[in-house]
Specification:
With 103 residues, the protein is mainly α. The chain folds into 2 domains: 55 residues; 35 residues, no CATH class. The protein has a two-stranded antiparallel ribbon. A hairpin with a 2-residue loop joins strand 1 and strand 2. It is elongated, with a radius of gyration of 29 Å. The relative contact order is 0.07. The mean pLDDT is 77.
């Protein structure tokens, strides 16, 4: 019967190999062959490793900072944004407004 301690040691060992392979830049196939790991086992442990990382990031109770910047409209140097049939528009307007004006 497998003990919980041996399972934890195996998990730590496999997770260290996954990190080593990612850092090495070596293909999974050649890395597994070099370490004698069946590719099916590799992908099983890789999935568990990814799930563990997602859980650890989600369980810390923190928020991710999201910075929203407003759209910046650069002023037109001449002062006139648009002119159509004698109508002068001095500020930027949405394209939909200009389409309605022309249509």
């Amino acid at each position: 019967m497998r003990t919980k301690k041996s399972q934890v040691n195996k998990e730590e060992y496999m997770f260290s190999l996954i990190a080593e392979q990612a850092a090495s830049g070596q293909s999974i196939k050649s890395f597994c062959a070099r370490h004698g790991i069946p590719s099916g086992n590799w992908f099983y442990w890789q999935k568990r490793y990814q799930q563990r990382n997602v859980e650890s990031h989600n369980d810390n109770g923190s928020f991710t900072l999201l910075q929203v910047t407003p759209d910046v409209v650069t002023p037109v140097e001449s002062g006139i944004f648009a002119e159509y049939k004698g109508l002068k528009i001095y500020r930027p307007v949405p394209a939909s407004f200009l389409k309605e004006l022309i249509g």
